[in-house]
Design a protein that fits this description.
The protein has eight helices and eleven strands. By secondary structure, it is α/β, with parallel strands linked by helices. It has a nine-stranded mixed sheet. A two-stranded antiparallel ribbon has the order 3-4. The protein is globular. It binds iron/sulfur cluster (SF4) (2 copies).
């Protein structure tokens, strides 16, 4: 069994508690307007458009497939900028054993492993096998998910998972579809399900001025969290126009005043652990 991996980060302090090894899988079932790494959304179609822009011949076409020769790569990302398919030619199809080998190199310094994306739940069966092995290393297993795939269909995986970090991008169905291309029904179901199972480490909402109804989103989501378990962390994330598509690069960053106001709303609604990043 293999899964497409966009990148491995051996040390991360922003993907859950402690020092974490983060695995970013390629492919997503959302298409968020504000995505910070839109090149993770689709799998490469091997159209070949990026091959000739590579300044160091690190890309080739072999048997109709675009192949990345990592040893030659200058990490300039010209290939990603050229791709109109929201993809990257620098994706490796890795086995559980290959990923494990990388984790073991850093094990002494790690608290755990976080799987992210793209949307890592597209590879739930692969994650199950991976987490079995990670548990043998006495490391914690965290999932970072957009919540479209229902976790109640993957209880085997959830039993191996210490906690989930869940994006709740909009409380409003129409706004969620406008932003991501998909309904938020499963996201809200997952919020309740994971929270009631004690598996929700945090819920996150990105605040985007003039695009989303931020007050309504934070008001409604924080009410839900407080009802499920007021100790669940609610993270309010400032939109920043880094790595986003051109259309979103001019959207303004939320003010500190707006973030403070939203935090206040969540606290008043009963959430005990609200942070701004
Ligand atoms: S990042 Fe892409 S374009 Fe740049 S050297 Fe590597 S493969 Fe070539
Ligand atoms: S990364 Fe994009 S441009 Fe390059 S071959 Fe794949 S789909 Fe085509």
């Amino acid at each position: 069994m293999r899964a497409p991996v966009n990148k491995l980060i051996p040390f991360s302090s922003v993907d859950g508690p402690g020092n974490r090894f983060s695995i970013f899988f390629q492919g997503c079932n959302f298409n968020c307007l504000y995505c910070h790494n839109p090149e993770t959304i689709n799998l490469c179609s091997s159209c070949g458009a990026c091959v000739d822009v590579c300044p160091n011949n690190a890309l080739d076409v072999i048997d109709g497939k675009v192949v990345w020769k990592e040893a030659f790569c200058l990490k300039c990302d010209l290939c990603i900028n050229e791709c109109s398919n929201l993809s990257s030619p620098k994706v490796k199809y890795m086995s559980v054993e290959e990923i494990l080998k990388e984790i073991i190199k850093y094990k002494t310094f790690l608290s755990g492993v976080t799987v992210s994306g793209g949307e890592c739940m597209l590879y739930a069966e692969f994650l199950k096998e991976l987490f079995k092995e990670i548990k043998n290393l006495n490391l914690t297993c965290f999932i970072d998910s957009n919540g479209l795939i229902l976790f109640e269909g993957f209880n085997d995986l959830l039993n191996l998972t210490d906690a989930v970090m869940l994006d709740v991008k909009s409380f409003d169905e129409r706004e969620h579809i406008m932003l991501t291309g998909k309904s938020n029904k499963n996201v809200l179901k997952n919020l309740v399900y994971l929270g009631s199972k004690g598996k929700l480490y945090e819920a996150r909402t990105v605040v985007v001025p003039d695009v989303l109804d931020n007050v309504s989103n934070v008001d409604n989501v924080s009410r839900m969290i407080a009802k499920i378990d007021d100790k669940i962390r609610y993270k309010l994330i400032k939109f920043r126009p880094l790595g986003v598509r051109k259309e979103f690069s001019k959207i303004k960053i939320p003010s500190d005043d707006l973030m403070a106001k939203l935090k206040d709303i969540a606290l008043k609604n009963g959430c005990k652990n609200v942070i701004i990043t």
